[in-house]
């Protein structure tokens, strides 16, 4: 009798665990998207200045949180998203990217660490400057068309306008190239003579990359931006 009860208890426990695992698998993606979408930082000139100071001093925080090692970049899972969200204050903010017609409004963080790419667009080279040569950014392609660089894949087309800002000046680019390239094409992040922005994300298979490039059209102070653009850049990112 006791053996039968024990057997039933074990079966019930296993069944319960399987149900929990199944629920986690079913709701993993929506929960992950909610976690990422909840990160809506107020990017400020003061925070960017603090980032620049830590970069120049090569502070401990900078060295711990900024990486340009592409080989360590992994697919974005729920655990990474949650851990990154809980430690989002460690992202070294460098500015914002706004693509109005694609619905992209993201903070820009230094480097391509998994924690940075879980919540922001990441710079792909050290010491890159907006408006000077090539300014490459990486971001995760998501099935959700509203999260991270998901809109880049689904909505960004040639002719659209891309705005970058360091919260002092705004750099306006116009998309002139949309192409699929091999994941090995690291040459696309190299410096260029002409001022361009390069955006890189995974393609639908995850094996290749989508490349978006825009040429610099003009620059202006943030205070001189149109009211619509100014309002967008002054409100929290991801909002």
TrEMBL record:
GO terms for biological process: proteolysis. This is Sortase family protein. One of its GO terms (molecular function) is cysteine-type peptidase activity. The active site is at 140 (proton donor/acceptor), 202 (acyl-thioester intermediate). It holds the Pfam family Sortase. The lineage of its organism: Bacteria, Bacillati, Bacillota, Bacilli, Lactobacillales. The chain crosses the membrane at residues 9-27. Keywords: Hydrolase, Membrane, Protease, Thiol protease, Transmembrane, Transmembrane helix. It comes from Lentilactobacillus hilgardii (strain ATCC 8290 / DSM 20176 / CCUG 30140 / JCM 1155 / KCTC 3500 / NBRC 15886 / NCIMB 8040 / NRRL B-1843 / 9). SUPFAM superfamilies: Sortase. The keyword Transferase does not apply.
């Amino acid at each position: 009798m006791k053996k039968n009860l024990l057997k039933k208890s074990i079966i019930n426990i296993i069944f319960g665990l399987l149900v929990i695992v199944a629920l986690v698998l079913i709701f993993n993606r929506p929960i992950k998207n909610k976690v990422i979408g909840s990160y809506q930082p107020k990017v400020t000139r003061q925070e960017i200045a603090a980032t620049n100071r830590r970069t120049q001093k090569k502070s401990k925080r900078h060295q711990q949180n900024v990486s340009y090692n592409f080989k360590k970049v992994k697919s974005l899972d729920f655990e990474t998203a949650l851990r990154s969200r809980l430690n989002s204050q460690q992202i070294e903010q460098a500015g914002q990217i706004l693509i109005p017609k694609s619905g992209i409004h993201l903070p820009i963080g230094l480097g391509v660490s998994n924690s940075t790419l879980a919540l922001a667009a990441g710079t792909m080279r050290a010491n890159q400057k907006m408006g000077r040569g090539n300014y490459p950014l990486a971001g995760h392609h998501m099935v959700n068309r509203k999260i991270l660089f998901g809109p880049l894949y689904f909505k960004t087309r040639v002719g659209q306008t891309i705005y970058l800002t360091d919260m002092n000046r705004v750099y306006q680019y116009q998309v002139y190239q949309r192409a699929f390239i091999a994941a090995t094409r690291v040459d696309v992040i190299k410096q260029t003579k002409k001022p361009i922005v390069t955006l890189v994300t995974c393609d639908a298979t995850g094996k290749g990359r989508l490349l978006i490039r825009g040429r610099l059209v003009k620059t202006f102070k943030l205070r001189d931006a149109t009211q619509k653009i100014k309002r967008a850049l002054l409100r929290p990112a991801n909002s």
